Amino acid sequence: MIALTAARLFTPLERIEQPLLLLEEGVIREVSSHAGREIPKDCRVVDFRDGIIAPGLIDIHIHGAAGRDVMKGDSESLATIERFLAKHAVTSYLPTTITAPVDSTLAALESLANAIEAAAKRQEGGELRARPRGIHIEGPFLSHTRRGVHPTENLLPPTLKMFERFWEAARGHIRVMTIAPELPGAPEVIADAARRGVCVSLGHSDADLKAARAGIAAGARHATHTFNAMRPLRHRDPGILGAVLTDSNLSADIIADGLHVDPAIVQLFLQAKGQDRAVFITDSTAATGMPDGIYKIGTLEMEVKRGVCLARGTLAGSTLTLDQAIRNVMQFVRCGLEQTLRPATLNPARVAGLAGKGILEVGVEADLVVWSPEGEVRNTIIRGAGL
Ligand SMILES: [Zn+2]
Question: Is-catalytic flag, 192?
Answer without folding.
Answer: no
